[in-house]
Amino acid sequence: MSTSPASNTCPLRSIFFTEVNTPNLVTLSIAGQDAAEAFNVSLVELTHLDIYRVQLLDPRGFGPSLSACPKLEHFWCYKLWGLGLHNSSMHKLSLPMCAVLTLCRLDELSEIEIEAPKLDRLDLEACCLDHVRLAAGPGPQVKVIIGGACIDAASEDHLTEHPRVGRHNLIREFEDL
Question: Can you say whether residue 70 is alpha, beta or left, with left for phi > 0 and alpha for psi between -120 and 50 degrees?
C-alpha cells in the first residue's frame, strides 16, 4: 500500500481518505479535481497535504477533516474553490503539529480561525479575507505573509498585536520576503 499517492491522473467523485480506506497514508497530493462532492481527509498518520486546483461542491468537511489529522506538519493549498458554499464561510483548523500552512488564491475563503501551536509560517497569498484569527498560546514566532491579499483591518490588527507574530513578522508584499 502506497503511503504517498497522487490523484492528478484520476478524477475523484469525492475526496475521501480516512483511516478505514487508507490507514498508512503519510503524504497526499490532490490536483485538478472538478466538482468533488465531499471533502474528508481524516488521517492520523498524514504529515503532508498538497491541494492544487480543486473544486468542492460541499466544503463542510474541510476544517473538521483537516483537524482530524493530528500529525499534519505541512499543508499547501492553491486554488481550492467552493469554500464559501453551504453557508460555510467560517473554517476552523486545529492543527497541533503544523509548522507551515499555505493558503494561496482561495477566492471563496473569507473567514478562518487557526489553532496551530507549532506554526512558524502562515502564507495567505492572494486571498481576500474578512476574518483571520490565530489562537493565542505558546509557540514559535510566526512569519505571516499576506502578499497580494486583502485582509480586513481587524484581522491585520489581530496579527500585528499577536505575541507570536507582531509587526516585524507580518510581511505585506512579496518583495519583503
Answer: alpha
DSSP state of 65: H
Q: What is the pLDDT of residues 55-113, one digit of tens each?
A: 999 898 999 999 999 999 999 999 999 998 776 678 999 999 999 999 999 988 899 99
State the amino acid at position 148 in one-letter form: G
Task: Render 40-109 in DSSP notation, one character per residue.
Answer: EEE-TT--EEEEEEEEES--TTHHHHHHT-TT--EEEEEEEE-TTSTT--EEEEE-TT--EEEEES-TT-
Kindly state the cell numbers that stand for 15: 475526496
CA separation for the pair 34, 23 (Å, rounded)? 25
Its pTM stands at 0.90
